[in-house]
Write a structure and sequence with these properties.
alpha/beta, 9-stranded mixed sheet, 12 helices
Length: about 350
């Protein structure tokens, strides 16, 4: 049963979880010290999607303490999209921050975020973060590739965040502003896509309020421990159709997001797809060629990794990712120059 959120709270951290008690324990333990200082402004809502492992015991250890951890156990399994949407709709604060249960909140995250959310109303906040394999270690990345922290507009946000807008933990949504602009929206039009959250992410970005970018790392996410879906289909034709439905008169949005997928996601995914993984089997070339066949990035960065012998593909994948990292780092310097006047 959900306890009522206090009226003076401004942020709800919503965590969707299913059968990953170990990861959830780590996440909640990382949030707890941050919550000590901000317990009157921030609440945590854990949505358990009918877990059968020790998740209930993990949740009880935090809900029964002194900090504002709240929980709901679904009566039936809603799936990834359904569970996140349910948690989003349950939140009664202005801002909602969605978390995957395999993420970690970094030390000092709320110290960075909360002063900005209370200083000026924003539609959407995009934050720094990094991915890790194996044991979690807090670190500060040398290259943020985001430019300075700043108040900005939709075009800059999309250029900066691009396909990482699908990374739910990197974005804080002004739910109140989204509901004000779409009072009758159900936000369920993309259910089953594994990226239904884009209905309220894009809903926030379209609100006539400034956006916020905080370049410092605030979260970390564990790699290669999920799957069960056809990634090339989801982030190829399905994602394209969602973007074009949300921004039918603005081809810049899909062009920006599509190019970033080809430079930041698919080169690595094509190599992962050839090894041991949890993704559904699919023909990535067949899924993506109709979407990206006219884009040189597909043929240069991803296609060879799928077709070359595996030892050569490994080297090619490494070289492509190194080249593109240099490109992003150079672009970051350009952002610093261009947006220095907006820095917060």
């Amino acid at each position: 049963m959900q306890a009522p959120l206090l009226s003076h709270s401004i942020l709800t951290i919503v965590i969707g979880t299913y059968n990953r008690g170990f990861f959830l324990q780590r996440l909640l333990a990382s949030i707890a010290p941050e919550l000590e200082k901000y317990h009157e402004q921030v609440k945590v809502l854990i949505c358990d999607d009918c877990s059968t492992d020790d998740t209930a015991d993990v949740i009880a250890g935090f809900v029964n303490g002194s900090l504002p951890f709240l929980s709901i156990r679904n009566s039936s399994n809603k799936g990834l999209d359904g569970n996140l949407l349910f948690g989003f709709m349950q939140a009664t604060t202005e801002y909602v921050w969605l978390f995957g249960d395999d993420d970690v909140m970094l030390d000092g995250a709320l110290d960075l975020l909360m002063p900005e959310l209370t200083k000026q109303r924003v539609a959407f906040a995009y934050i720094g973060g990094y991915a890790f394999n194996g044991e979690f270690v807090q670190k500060n990345n040398r290259f943020q590739n985001m430019g300075p922290s700043r108040l900005t507009d939709r075009a800059d946000l999309i250029k900066t965040a691009h396909c990482l807008l699908t990374f739910i933990t990197r974005g804080i949504i002004n739910k109140q502003a989204v509901i004000e602009s779409q009072p009758n929206a159900s936000f369920d039009q993309y259910m089953g896509s594994i990226i239904n959250q884009m209905s309220f992410v894009f809903g926030a970005i379209k609100v006539d309020l400034p956006c916020l970018i905080i370049a410092e790392n605030m979260i970390a996410s564990q790699l290669n421990n999920s799957g069960g879906y056809a990634a090339c289909t989801s982030f190829g034709p399905v994602f394209r159709d969602i973007v074009k439905n949300e921004f039918p008169n603005d081809p810049y949005v899909w062009r920006t997001i599509g190019n970033s997928l080809l430079e930041t996601y698919f080169p690595n995914h094509f190599y992962v797809q050839r090894g041991d993984h949890n993704y559904k089997k699919e023909n990535c070339i067949s899924a993506l060629q109709p979407v990206f066949g006219n884009n040189y990035r597909f043929w240069l960065y991803s296609y060879p990794i799928s077709m070359l012998p595996k030892p050569i593909a490994k080297g090619y994948s490494f070289a492509v990712r190194a080249l593109l990292k240099i490109k992003r780092t150079i672009r970051s310097g350009w952002w610093y120059v261009r947006y220095a006047s907006r820095a917060i």
